[in-house]
UniProtKB/TrEMBL annotation:
<comment type="pathway">
    <text>Amino-acid biosynthesis; L-tryptophan biosynthesis; L-tryptophan from chorismate: step 3/5.</text>
</comment>
<comment type="similarity">
    <text>Belongs to the TrpF family.</text>
</comment>
<dbReference type="InterPro" id="IPR013785">
    <property type="entry name" value="Aldolase_TIM"/>
</dbReference>
<protein>
    <recommendedName>
        <fullName>N-(5'-phosphoribosyl)anthranilate isomerase</fullName>
        <ecNumber>5.3.1.24</ecNumber>
    </recommendedName>
</protein>
<dbReference type="InterPro" id="IPR044643">
    <property type="entry name" value="TrpF_fam"/>
</dbReference>
<keyword id="KW-0028">Amino-acid biosynthesis</keyword>
<keyword id="KW-0413">Isomerase</keyword>
<dbReference type="Pfam" id="PF00697">
    <property type="entry name" value="PRAI"/>
</dbReference>
<feature type="domain" description="N-(5'phosphoribosyl) anthranilate isomerase (PRAI)">
    <location>
        <begin position="6"/>
        <end position="211"/>
    </location>
</feature>
<keyword id="KW-0822">Tryptophan biosynthesis</keyword>
<dbReference type="GO" id="GO:0016853">
    <property type="term" value="F:isomerase activity"/>
</dbReference>
<keyword id="KW-0057">Aromatic amino acid biosynthesis</keyword>
<dbReference type="InterPro" id="IPR001240">
    <property type="entry name" value="PRAI_dom"/>
</dbReference>
<dbReference type="InterPro" id="IPR011060">
    <property type="entry name" value="RibuloseP-bd_barrel"/>
</dbReference>
Length: 225
């Protein structure tokens, strides 16, 4: 058992190199958002996606809400995976699967309460994975990620047990709490942004501590069964 690690809010090829050298399995590339850290121009997203060597995945974080607009965004940036950050109409995700069948689709679910569980059957037939985050899509200024806040991991654990798709866990994770998060939730992977940064820059020490904490947690949880 090995927890996959996605480092989000990658801002440059230099940051991509640091994340990959530390052991990242995937890079998150944030496009225009209504709020939150890390957005970069689409041209830079395309540059980083083109540079990134396999098998590292590149996730385009898009706030587009319709299948044609998301497909156009993907074609402009050429990631391996598209991460849909809002709770869009599941029919749009189904149409996206028809338009771009070769691109992997990850649906973000913002865990504001147990109602998050009801979204599993709506999206699961059309996506390859879920990502649980701590945003507030219904806020006056929607929060769609990068909050640095944890959410109720007991709900996330129920989501993981109920989901037929792999689940990433995001929201306020760092080296101090990742052991408990993995023990409670048992996700397929985790997603990091603000807690591995200092003054907005990817922090090599925080990243190294996080990676070591995840590997230690994996070893302990494997031994515990």
């Amino acid at each position: 058992m090995r927890t996959r690690i996605k480092i989000c809010c990658i801002a440059s090829i230099d940051e991509a190199q640091l994340a990959i050298a530390a052991g990242a399995d995937a890079l998150g590339l944030v496009a225009a958002m209504p709020s939150g850290p890390g957005p970069i121009p689409d041209a830079r997203i395309a540059q980083i996606a083109a540079w990134t060597p396999p098998p590292v995945a590149t996730f385009l974080l898009t706030s587009e809400t319709t299948a044609p607009a998301i497909a156009e965004h993907v074609r402009a940036t050429q990631p391996s995976t598209v991460q849909i950050v809002g709770h869009i109409d599941p029919g749009e995700v189904a149409e996206l699967a028809r338009l771009l069948p070769h691109v992997r689709r990850v649906q973000v679910i913002h865990v504001e309460g147990p109602e998050a569980l009801a979204l599993i059957p709506a999206y699961a037939p059309h996506v390859h994975a879920f990502l649980l985050d701590s945003g507030r899509p219904g806020a006056a200024v929607p929060e769609l990620g990068g909050t640095g806040r944890t959410h109720d991991w007991s709900i996330s654990a129920r989501f993981v047990r109920a989901s037929p798709r792999p689940v990433f866990l995001a929201g306020g994770l760092d080296a101090t709490n990742v052991m408990e998060a993995l023990r409670q939730v048992r996700p397929y992977g985790i997603d990091l942004c603000s807690r591995v940064r200092t003054d907005g820059q990817l922090d090599v020490m925080k990243l190294a501590l996080l990676m070591a904490a995840v590997r230690d947690a994996d070893a302990v949880l494997y031994a515990e069964g």
